[in-house]
């Protein structure tokens, strides 16, 4: 009888520990996703300043203004719940915007003289670097969380109590297509 009580206590403690690990990992994923959203929304502030500047050069590059407006819309529509898939359109929009700015500066050298435009372009690139770092942390937290609900005994604890689903990490299919090496998994 005492042995059963000890086994029950040990199992209860194990379940308690794994329950807390899963909850903690899930909360880290949500916090990391919030960081991604924060950096994406900081880009909106830069875009708000950049938009009227580009509008002034609309004769030179009308598509650039559309890209800025589209990127702002994509950022504001990101879900508050962690979702790496939803981030793909924002990532593509940022790359298109940066490419458009570079093309505009190369095609129209007189734009290079505008110090404000140069500073804003640097700020957009810096914000993109911040987003990249936040995505890396997000994906690490997603991996940790997904492992915690897939590996035994966490999988059992999750199935019986929390019923959390796997979180989709962010992946960039365009970037990975540029690599010759393909892992064999």
From TrEMBL:
Keywords, comma-separated and alphabetical: Membrane, Transmembrane, Transmembrane helix
GO CC term, one of those recorded: membrane
Entries under InterPro entries matching the protein: LemA-like_dom_sf, MamQ_LemA
SUPFAM superfamilies, sorted: LemA-like
Membrane topology, record value: Single-pass membrane protein
Pfam families documented for this protein: LemA
Gene3D superfamilies named among the record's database cross-references: LemA-like domain
Source domain of life: Bacteria
UniProt subcellular location: Membrane
Record bears the keyword Transmembrane helix: yes
Coiled-coil residue spans: none
Family as reported in the entry's similarity comment: Belongs to the LemA family.
Descriptive protein name: LemA family protein
């Amino acid at each position: 009888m005492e042995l059963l009580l000890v086994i029950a206590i040990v199992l209860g403690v194990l379940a308690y520990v794994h329950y807390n690990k899963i909850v903690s990992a899930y909360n880290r994923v949500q916090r990391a996703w919030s960081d991604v959203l924060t950096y994406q929304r900081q880009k909106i502030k830069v875009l708000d300043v950049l938009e009227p500047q580009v509008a002034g050069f609309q004769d030179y590059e009308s598509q650039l203004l559309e890209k800025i407006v589209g990127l702002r819309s994509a950022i504001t529509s990101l879900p508050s719940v962690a979702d790496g898939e939803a981030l793909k359109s924002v990532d593509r929009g940022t790359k298109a915007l940066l490419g458009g700015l570079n093309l505009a500066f190369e095609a129209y050298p007189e734009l290079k003289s505008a110090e404000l435009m140069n500073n804003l372009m640097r700020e957009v690139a810096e914000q993109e670097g911040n987003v990249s770092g936040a995505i890396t942390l997000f994906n690490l937290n997603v991996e940790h969380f997904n492992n915690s609900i897939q590996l035994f005994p966490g999988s059992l604890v999750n199935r019986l109590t929390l019923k959390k689903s796997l979180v989709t990490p962010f992946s960039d299919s365009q970037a990975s297509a540029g690599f010759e090496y393909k892992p064999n998994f």
